[in-house]
Amino acid sequence: MTLLSAANLAKNYGATRVLHGLDAEFSAGESVAVLGQSGSGKTTLLSLLAGLEAPDQGEVRFDGTDLASLNPDALARLRGRNMGIIFQEYHLVPSLTARENVALPLEILRERDAGARADALLQRVGLAARAGHFPHQLSGGEQQRVAIARALAPGPRLLFADEPTGNLDEATAEEVESLIFSLIAERGLTAIVVTHNRELAAKCSRVLTLHLGRFA
Q: How many Cβ atoms from other residues are within 10 Å of residue 63's Cβ?
């Protein structure tokens, strides 16, 4: 079953066309790598697929719903409940503890058991003992583990990962990659992993190669 699709997707920044009429389908339960060098349009594609930006041409559909048909509040609700995003730069809230960062999306969704679910996820990613620490007190690998737990907190169907190990040393990157793919398998997630790393891409069930805004 197709969970996410893009049709004739294009995006411009000023006079520069970054994506050129892309078509893609992502089936429920598969992991797909979008592989490409810096400047190929990978992060822009992720932003469009996740509804963080609107395309200049074409459409993105999640479970049959055209994201462009939703008002901002409805789009935020759909994304908040169905999509988790892991960023290269972690994007943790510096004034919140690890536990509070993981609980945040659940609190936004007004889930009553936010704290307990945050604790369970921090336990799963190996950070139960660091739950009360702030981001600046954590290593890069620990911050990314918190970010992974936060992305998974609402129980999404679709996980996006944008260069999830790009800021980590080789040993830590391997640990985080192993954790991400274990969690994808455990939860039966559809995953789209944006990367320039061919070894990381090879861990996915399918690879799309992006070059100068077009699939190669």
A: 14
The reported pTM is 0.94
Tokens representing 130 are: 């660091």
Digit-coded pLDDT (tens) for 197-214: 999 999 999 999 999 999
**Residue positions counted in the chain:** 216
Specify the DSSP class assigned to residue 40.
S
pLDDT in tens, 121-147: 999 999 999 999 999 999 999 999 999
| Cα separation, 125 vs 137, whole angstroms | 17
Domain ranges, residue 10: 2-92+155-215
Cα-based angle 145, 51, 161 (whole degrees, multiple of 5): 25
48 is a domain residue: yes
